[in-house]
């Protein structure tokens, strides 16, 4: 596999009146060409900040990259000028968000919003851009694209707006699509359709995807690999199969037990994880999950857990993997 995006030891803080918020604390991951990586975790875990840092969209100040690098095709994105980064953002990496109403321009026809990038980054004529906009709307499964291209966002349903966002994001054929909670605002049936659409487009266009979500259920079908993030760190990462069938971190166990699986037709929320994530003004020096973990040991509060590799692709940061730790029952692999 060839690496498209390589994030190394990324550490991002925000300086606020109340103090330094350590939002991302040493995150390392990569995305291969044509691959989907899901970054999963509760809100405030650093997943959106990670995405915005990749896009160089963090306002600085108050944001600050304390450490680490983001390499895209070998180029260190933090070393690019604003102008160079603007070109990358329009052509190479694009992003879609949870609420299309905040990123779609309500006063501009949807077609025109698709055309803008095409005219700017691909120097298409107006007529060609419009033709391509209609093609894109067709590609994302929009009924009556010839008519829709002339309409405004408020004339679209929630699901259609998300499709329009995807059309805008993919119009210039980017190498990487970052989707931050793209289906959270939608009902379950539409969620499944949008995920299916993303997967279909990925197969067709060979785009790499970073899918950011709090809901493991959403990623089951589409993710090749999954990184589970908690309190600014990746606590477990592996292939989709590793995470769903052989998870090793108690937080991953909690996530798996708390989310419905779309692919299994479950729609109800199951058991939520008790407690709240730690305060990122003063993150704990030990395991960040210790306060909520049923298995916490003394060392968990004292020292950040070492990385344990299960395979080349699968690793976990948890003291339960230490040879001297008590053996506990894995609630996912040893169910029933
Ligand atoms: Fe729980 Fe300790 Fe593992 Fe953290 S390191 S998840 S507190 S057992
Ligand atoms: Mg977020």
From TrEMBL:
Residue intervals passing through the bilayer: none
All copies of domain ABC transporter, residue ranges: 5-256
InterPro entries: AAA+_ATPase, ABC_Ni/Peptide_Import, ABC_transporter-like_ATP-bd, ABC_transporter-like_CS, Oligopep_ABC_C, P-loop_NTPase
Gene3D superfamilies: P-loop containing nucleotide triphosphate hydrolases (3.40.50.300)
Keywords: ATP-binding, Cell membrane, Membrane, Nucleotide-binding, Transport
GO CC entries: plasma membrane
GO terms of biological process kind: peptide transport
ATP-binding keyword on record: yes
SMART domains, sorted: AAA
Chief subcellular location: membrane
PROSITE patterns on file: ABC_TRANSPORTER_1 (PS00211), ABC_TRANSPORTER_2 (PS50893)
Membrane-topology descriptor: Peripheral membrane protein
Subcellular location: Cell membrane
GO MF entries: ATP binding; ATP hydrolysis activity
Pfam families: ABC_tran (PF00005), oligo_HPY (PF08352)
NCBIfam families membership: oligo_HPY
Family note: Belongs to the ABC transporter superfamily.
Name used for this protein in its record: Oligopeptide transport system ATP-binding protein
Organism this protein belongs to: Proteiniborus ethanoligenes
């Amino acid at each position: 596999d060839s690496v498209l995006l390589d994030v190394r030891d990324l550490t991002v803080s925000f300086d606020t009146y109340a103090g330094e918020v350590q939002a991302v604390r040493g995150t390392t991951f990569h995305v291969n060409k044509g691959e989907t990586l899901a970054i999963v975790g509760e809100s405030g875990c650093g997943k959106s900040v990670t995405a915005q840092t990749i896009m160089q969209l963090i306002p600085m100040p108050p944001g600050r990259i304390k450490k680490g690098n983001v390499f895209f095709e070998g180029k260190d994105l933090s070393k690019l000028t604003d102008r160079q980064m603007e070109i990358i953002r329009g052509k190479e990496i694009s992003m879609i968000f949870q609420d299309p109403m905040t990123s779609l321009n309500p006063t501009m026809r949807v077609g025109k919003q698709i055309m803008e990038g095409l005219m700017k980054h691909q120097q298409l004529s107006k007529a060609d851009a419009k033709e391509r906009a209609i093609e894109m709307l067709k590609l994302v499964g929009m009924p009556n694209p010839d008519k829709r291209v002339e309409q405004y966002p408020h004339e679209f349903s929630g699901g259609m707006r998300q499709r329009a966002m995807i059309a805008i994001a993919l119009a210039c054929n980017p190498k990487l699509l970052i989707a931050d909670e793209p289906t959270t605002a939608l009902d379950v049936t539409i969620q499944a359709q949008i995920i299916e659409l993303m997967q279909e487009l990925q197969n067709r266009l060979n785009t790499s995807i970073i899918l950011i979500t709090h809901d493991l259920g959403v990623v089951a079908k589409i993710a090749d690999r999954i990184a589970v993030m908690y309190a600014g760190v990746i606590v477990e990462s592996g292939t989709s199969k590793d995470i769903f069938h052989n998870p090793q971190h108690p937080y991953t166990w909690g996530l798996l037990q708390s989310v419905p699986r779309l692919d299994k037709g479950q729609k109800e929320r199951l058991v939520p994880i008790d407690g709240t994530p730690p305060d990122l003004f003063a993150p704990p020096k030990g395991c960040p999950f210790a306060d909520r973990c049923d298995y916490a040991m003394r060392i968990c509060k004292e020292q950040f857990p070492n990385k344990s590799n299960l395979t080349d692709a699968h690793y976990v940061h948890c003291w339960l993997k230490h040879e001297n730790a008590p053996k506990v029952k894995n609630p996912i692999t040893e169910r029933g």
